[in-house]
Structures are given as structure tokens and as C-alpha cells.
From TrEMBL:
<dbReference type="InterPro" id="IPR008936">
    <property type="entry name" value="Rho_GTPase_activation_prot"/>
</dbReference>
<dbReference type="GO" id="GO:0008360">
    <property type="term" value="P:regulation of cell shape"/>
</dbReference>
<dbReference type="InterPro" id="IPR001849">
    <property type="entry name" value="PH_domain"/>
</dbReference>
<dbReference type="InterPro" id="IPR011993">
    <property type="entry name" value="PH-like_dom_sf"/>
</dbReference>
<dbReference type="GO" id="GO:0005096">
    <property type="term" value="F:GTPase activator activity"/>
</dbReference>
<dbReference type="GO" id="GO:0005886">
    <property type="term" value="C:plasma membrane"/>
</dbReference>
<keyword id="KW-0677">Repeat</keyword>
<protein>
    <submittedName>
        <fullName>ArfGAP with RhoGAP domain, ankyrin repeat and PH domain 1</fullName>
    </submittedName>
</protein>
<dbReference type="GO" id="GO:0005802">
    <property type="term" value="C:trans-Golgi network"/>
</dbReference>
<dbReference type="Pfam" id="PF00620">
    <property type="entry name" value="RhoGAP"/>
</dbReference>
<dbReference type="InterPro" id="IPR000198">
    <property type="entry name" value="RhoGAP_dom"/>
</dbReference>
<feature type="domain" description="Rho-GAP">
    <location>
        <begin position="242"/>
        <end position="427"/>
    </location>
</feature>
<feature type="domain" description="Ras-associating">
    <location>
        <begin position="460"/>
        <end position="549"/>
    </location>
</feature>
<dbReference type="GO" id="GO:0007165">
    <property type="term" value="P:signal transduction"/>
</dbReference>
<dbReference type="InterPro" id="IPR052227">
    <property type="entry name" value="Arf-Rho-GAP_ANK-PH_domain"/>
</dbReference>
<keyword id="KW-0343">GTPase activation</keyword>
<dbReference type="InterPro" id="IPR000159">
    <property type="entry name" value="RA_dom"/>
</dbReference>
Length: 727
């Protein structure tokens, strides 16, 4: 099975200046007529950063007719001072009231990189002009965008869907924190919730800028073909994506309705501070805490907390300050008293039931935040032997913070203590969720212990870069990997994000690809991903694709007798690390016997004593052999064996036919995993995949932030910490 070398291009899609944009519509726009006096300034070739005084506006008689907006010195003039063809209008923007000398203004952007500013005192007249101009340049395809009051409306080149080869032209409207889009493929529109974006960034150089908007399971590239209106869109979208106020619901939100500012802090402390003595009791430096909190409030999505740059006490203080300063509080003013009264119920079962009832009545964002915070504090108290912060101590700190009291009311602390103590029952946490949470936290602490021993420390998400089918920028996705995630779960996650349905006999699998060795290894469906992630070298990556040989291997395993295999293969040895060192010698014929316990190598069929013997479950088998070794056939695989002293040996085996290769590889899988090669659950072929589209275009994920967690941590496989064994 030959290794397919992947495309290594990772550039962001760029505007192709040599090719015109694809325009899928050719329609005659409806005739719109309107006239009246407007006040206008001289056209500009750059964005209006400063307020235009009333004296800078000139009164002009304006006529919109036959696709032309003309402006005259006065209403009896026969020759216009100038005109704007509606076919050349690319954007119409409505600044906030009183942005300029006239209270109500609107901006018109043209293909010629000119900006025209018009103003009126009457809101009604200004709105009428905006609607008429919009109707004159927006095609019927996108006329639904006119049904709402918008801050910005226009056409932009974009790339999306499964093909990013050519830019197309779409129509966009910005309304509050929603960006609505209509694409040529269909009139349906679906808003992007800008405050829920996972990423909002600018890629490329000044000549080819791309605005990247990443929402869960979909990505949109908006391209800067015309710099003037693109910069206007950029500023407006960035402003709309920022937090709107101080309340929880006005913050930038994640997938689970948890404010990004809360997630950032909680996740950092989980990664770096679970074993920090006095965590949350100790205060950070006031100046650093204030600067951090201001950055998080301004744009939490762009703040990436890193160990060495922020101290855990500064982050914990910023989180406490944010929660204390919430105008309505985490438990809301309307329900605060009910929570405090519930803490005085003597019967524990009745009290827990009351907490559950009150939780349901909290606003969705508050409810999600309470659960996330208490879940985090539950993990913190699991390490109280080290951090000295048991449930009672955490309640003393967070009671006054969450209920915004002066610390004199003991009931506030009791509520927090009850919620942590009864976390599983109050928040309906099932055993599987709790198990995954414990495993993830245990893995984090184990890695920190290993990092301390090796002199390296890592902070931030455990993020795995995964590609779909092949390595290229448009198929790349970054996924947070909990300690419990299996290769099957990762595969299904990637397919869900890309809206890929799984049909019968579709054997989608996650592969570990080593580009330098030109070899790849299909991960077993039950294999844990996190240890693999930390063992990946710089020349390796993960890719999800169909396992083309799986059906043939399963048929072979179902028809064969016994669980052993033997036969001749061509053999070459290399006693170096995978991908390093100079192999010696060529390929030689050798006889192999593979059984449930070991792989044995004999010099020839008649030999009675094996030359070499390896325990089969300590072997990693990769499909493919690098071409510079000049393998005698293209049906080969690379075998790696790691000794107890962490020394690695590897060798190369070649078969005469593809069928032989499949049989050997299938037998390896069979004996290594006790006969369970492929999951028998029907969920893999009947899993419902929710459709995620923007308009009628299926969107794809884009690469996220840099993967900082791909370095190897040698001691990751150490025994789990005993602190969680009896939790």
C-alpha cells in the first residue's frame, strides 16, 4: 500500500487578482425612484475617522432614478454636480446617530474606492433614503436582507464550502451582533452570531487580506478585494463581535453559553493552578489583575493566557473581580434571596431539590456559568491536600463574591459549599461525564508533574490538529482533546464538524501520518488520542479518512482458521529512532511467525530457533516504507518496537502482493486488540449528523490558534495520582 504524500500548503485562501469573481446572478434590478434634499460632504478615499462638522456638509438636491443617484446644486438645476451609479455601489453603511454634524447620516461606498457621506436631521427621511438606495443596488436574490434595520449592507468576495479555489460574491448585512449572508447557491440566509465566534482574525498581507470568521463547525473567509469598504466591514464586525456590556448575556459566549472570559480563566487555572497552594484565596497583583481584566472584557476571544506571562493568582483574581462586578450578579437580583433562604432548609434532600428548582429558573447563560464554575471548584477541592482549598475554604472565598455581599452573611458561603458538595446531584452529572472529567484533570496534573521533572511546563488547551482526508489548509481543524477521548470519538467529531454522513461500509478512521518516514498508522478505534498527541514529532500529524482496506481485512479475519499467521517476507532492520539515523544493509528474505503473544523472525523456514522475537503488543505497525530505502515491492510496512528503557527499534517488512500485506496487517490488529478490530455498534453507520450551513453553503472549519501541546512529555504514562482514586 503506497503512501500518498500530502499537500503541505497551509496558506490562507487569497484573492486571485488574475481571475474575476464568480457572479452567479445576472438580473435586471427593479427601477427605484426617489428625490429630495440631502446634505453631503466631498467624497473621500479613506475611512472617516474624525467627526465631520455641520459646516462641511453642502445642501444638494438628489435624485435616484434609472439606476443613478444624481446630486444637483438646487432642485431646478439641469446638470448634476456628480452622480453615483447604483451598479457600482458595493456597500451602504449607517453610522450611529450623532456621529457627525447631522444627527442621522449614511455612507455609500463604490467600486472606485470612494466614500460618500450624506446627512439629514430627520430620522424618518434618512431611513427612507437608505431603503431606496438599498433596493436600487441589492438584487432580488438578497432582498430579504432589506427587511431588517442594518448597520452595514453590501457585497463582498468570500470563500466557503468544500471548495476554496475561487472567490464568489455574496451579500451581507450586519444587524447588531449578527452577520447575515446570502450566497448565490440559494436565497436562504442564516446568521453568524459574532459574539459566539471561536475565531475572528485577519490573515494574509496588505495586498491580500482575508477576514476569517470561525463559528462551531463552519468557517467563512471574507476577502479584501477593495480595501476601503473591506476596512469598514472589518471595523464594524470587530465592534459587533466584542462584548456589548457588563452583564453575562452581553459577553462573548462559547458553545455552551459560557462567557469566554469565564472559560479562559477557568481553563487556565485548571491547566496551571489546581495544585497551587491557596488558589483563589491568594490575591494577585492589583495592577496586573486590572490590566488582564480590561483585556478580557474588551476581547476575551483574542486573549490567550500562557504560563510565564500570567500568574495563576492574577488570573484567579481577575475571575473573582469579574463575577463580583456583574451588575445583576451570577444568581440574579430577583433570585438571590431565594438561594440564600434555600441554604437554611435542614433536610438535605429537600434542600438539594430546592437548589435544582432554582437552577432551572436562572437565565440560560447564568445557569451554564454556574455549572461550569461549580464543576471547576469541584475539581479544585479534589486537590485540597496540595492546594489547601477544601470545599469550606472555597465557599468562604466565593460566597461573598457570587452573592456580592460583605462577607457577613454566612448563608452565601453555605450555598456555594452545598453546590460543590452536591455537585453531581444538583447538576445531574452522570457517571460517564464525571469519569471523563476526572480522567482529564488527572492527565493534566500528571503532565505537569512530568513537565516539572523534565524542566518543561506547558499551559493552555490540549489541542490536536486534525485534517480531513488530506493535509491542506481548508481541511484543517483544531480540536480540544480530553484525556478520555478515543480515536473513534475524535473521528466522529471531525466528521460531524464537516457534515460528513457515515454510510454502511464507510470505514472512517483516524490515521497517524509520519511524513518523513512516508508511513501511516490507522489508530485502533479504542486507542486514547492524548498520549499519541504528545508523542507526535514535527513531521507527523493526524488525518481522518476512509480505511480503504478495512472491509477486505474483516472478510479475511472472518474466513480464516486460527489466530496465527506465518510466511516469508523481505526484511530490513534499523536500530535508530523512527525517522533518525542511517539504516544499514538491504532487504533479505526471512520467515516470520505471528501469534497472540509475539512476532518471531527465522532465518529460513527450516530454522528451529528464532533469530529475533518481540512481544506483539509492544509493536506499532505503520503502512508504507520510505522510498529512499528502495524497498523491493510497494507492499510494505514499518514496524516500531519501544523497549522498557524507552529505546526504539524499527525495521521494514515487504510483502509480494497487496493481499498479503492486508492479511499480515489484519492479523497484527487482531492479536494486539484481542480480536476486536472494528466496533460492532451500529451507531457508526447510523449516527445522525446535524446539518450546519450558512445560507445553502456547507461551511468548513479553519485552523485555529497554534498548537502548543504537540511536544512530547516523557512521563505522561506515569501512574494516576492517588488523590482522585477515591473521589
Amino acid at each position: 500500500m503506497e503512501f500518498l504524500r500530502n499537500n503541505q500548503t497551509t496558506d490562507v485562501p487569497r484573492v486571485d487578482s488574475m481571475k474575476p469573481l464568480e457572479k452567479h446572478y445576472s438580473v435586471v434590478l427593479p427601477t427605484v425612484s426617489h428625490s429630495g434634499f440631502l446634505y453631503k460632504t466631498a467624497s473621500a478615499g479613506k475611512l472617516l475617522q474624525d467627526r465631520r462638522a455641520r459646516e462641511e456638509f453642502s445642501r444638494r438636491w438628489c435624485v435616484l432614478s434609472d439606476g443613478v443617484l444624481s446630486y444637483f446644486e438646487h432642485e431646478r438645476a439641469m446638470t448634476p454636480n456628480g452622480e453615483i451609479r447604483t451598479s457600482e455601489i458595493v456597500c451602504l453603511a449607517v453610522p450611529p446617530p450623532d456621529s457627525h454634524g447631522f444627527e442621522h447620516t449614511f455612507e455609500v461606498y463604490t467600486e472606485g474606492e470612494r466614500l460618500y457621506l450624506f446627512g439629514l436631521e430627520s430620522a424618518e427621511l434618512a431611513r427612507e433614503w437608505v431603503k431606496c438606495i438599498a433596493k436600487a443596488f441589492v438584487p432580488p436574490l438578497a432582498e430579504d436582507l432589506l427587511a431588517r434595520d442594518f448597520e452595514r449592507l453590501g457585497r463582498l468576495p468570500y470563500k466557503a464550502g468544500l471548495s476554496l479555489q475561487r472567490a464568489q460574491e455574496g451579500w451581507f448585512a450586519l444587524t447588531g451582533s449578527e452577520l447575515r449572508a446570502v450566497f448565490p447557491e440559494g436565497p436562504c440566509e442564516e446568521p453568524l452570531q459574532l459574539r459566539r465566534l471561536q475565531e475572528l482574525s485577519i490573515q494574509g498581507d496588505n495586498e491580500n487580506q482575508v477576514l476569517v470568521l470561525v463559528e462551531r463547525r463552519r468557517t467563512l473567509y471574507i476577502q479584501g478585494e477593495r480595501r476601503l469598504d473591506f476596512m469598514g466591514w472589518l471595523g464594524a464586525i470587530q465592534k459587533a463581535a466584542a462584548s456589548l456590556g457588563d452583564t453575562l448575556s452581553e459577553q462573548q459566549l462559547g458553545d455552551s453559553d459560557i462567557p469566554v472570559i469565564v472559560y479562559r480563566c477557568v481553563d487556565y487555572i485548571t491547566q496551571c493552578g489546581l495544585t497551587s497552594e491557596g488558589i483563589y484565596r491568594k490575591c494577585g497583583q492589583t495592577s496586573k489583575t486590572q490590566r488582564l481584566l480590561e483585556s478580557l472584557r474588551q476581547d476575551a476571544r483574542s486573549v490567550h493566557l500562557k504560563e510565564g506571562e500570567q500568574h495563576v493568582d492574577d488570573v484567579s483574581s481577575a475571575l473573582k473581580r469579574f463575577l463580583r462586578d456583574l451588575p445583576d450578579g451570577l444568581f440574579t437580583r430577583a433570585q438571590r434571596l431565594s438561594w440564600l433562604e434555600a441554604s437554611e432548609i435542614e433536610d438535605e434532600e429537600e434542600k438539594v431539590s430546592r437548589y435544582r428548582e432554582l437552577l432551572v429558573h436562572l437565565p440560560p447563560v447564568n445557569r451554564a456559568t454556574v455549572k461550569a464554575l461549580i464543576s471547576h471548584l469541584y475539581c479544585v477541592q479534589c486537590f485540597s491536600d496540595t492546594n489547601q482549598m477544601n470545599t469550606h475554604n472555597l465557599a468562604i472565598v466565593f460566597g461573598p463574591t457570587l452573592f456580592q455581599t460583605d462577607g457577613q452573611d454566612y448563608k452565601a458561603g453555605r450555598v456555594v459549599e452545598d453546590l460543590i458538595s452536591h455537585y453531581v446531584v444538583v447538576f445531574s452529572v452522570d457517571e460517564e461525564e464525571l469519569r471523563k472529567q476526572r480522567e482529564e484533570v488527572t492527565a493534566i496534573v500528571k503532565m505537569r508533574v512530568a513537565g516539572t521533572a523534565s524542566g518543561t511546563q506547558h499551559a493552555g488547551d490540549f489541542i490536536c490538529t486534525v485534517y480531513l482526508e488530506e493535509k491542506k489548509a481548508e481541511s484543517e481543524q483544531h480540536v480540544k482533546i480530553p484525556a478520555s477521548m478515543t480515536a473513534e470519538e475524535l473521528t466522529l467529531e471531525i466528521l460531524d464538524r464537516r457534515n460528513v454522513g457515515i454510510r454502511e461500509k464507510d470505514y472512517w478512521t483516524c490515521f497517524e501520518v509520519n511524513e518523513k518516514e512516508e508511513a501511516e498508522r490507522p489508530l485502533h478505534f479504542a486507542e486514547k488520542v492524548l498520549p499519541i498527541l504528545h508523542g507526535l514529532g514535527i513531521d507527523s500529524h493526524l488525518v481522518v479518512k476512509k480505511h480503504q482496506s478495512m472491509e477486505a481485512m474483516l472478510l479475511y479475519l472472518a474466513s480464516r482458521v486460527g489466530d496465527t499467521k506465518h510466511g516469508m517476507m523481505k526484511f530490513r532492520e534499523d536500530r535508530s529512532l523512527l525517522g533518525l539515523g542511517l539504516p544499514s544493509g538491504g532487504f533479505h528474505d526471512r520467515y516470520f511467525i505471528l501469534n497472540s503473544s509475539c512476532l518471531r523472525l527465522y532465518k529460513e523456514v527450516r530454522s528451529h530457533r528464532p533469530e529475533k522475537e518481540w512481544p506483539v503488543k509492544s509493536l506499532k505497525v505503520y503502512l508504507g516504507i520510505k522510498k529512499k530505502l528502495r524497498p523491493p515491492t510497494c507492499w510494505g510496512f514499518t514496524v516500531v518496537h519501544e523497549t522498557e528503557k524507552h529505546d526504539k527499534q524499527q525495521w521494514y517488512l515487504c510483502c509480494d502482493t497487496q493481499m498479503e500485506l492486508r492479511e499480515w496487517f489484519a492479523t497484527f490488529l487482531f492479536v494486539q486488540h484481542d480480536g476486536l478490530v472494528w466496533p460492532s455498534e451500529p451507531s457508526r453507520v447510523s449516527r445522525a449528523v446535524p446539518e450546519v450551513r450558512l445560507g445553502s453553503v456547507s461551511l468548513i472549519p479553519l485552523r485555529g490558534s497554534e498548537n502548543e501541546m504537540r511536544r512530547s512529555v516523557a512521563a505522561f504514562t506515569a501512574d494516576p495520582l492517588s488523590v482522585l482514586r477515591n473521589v
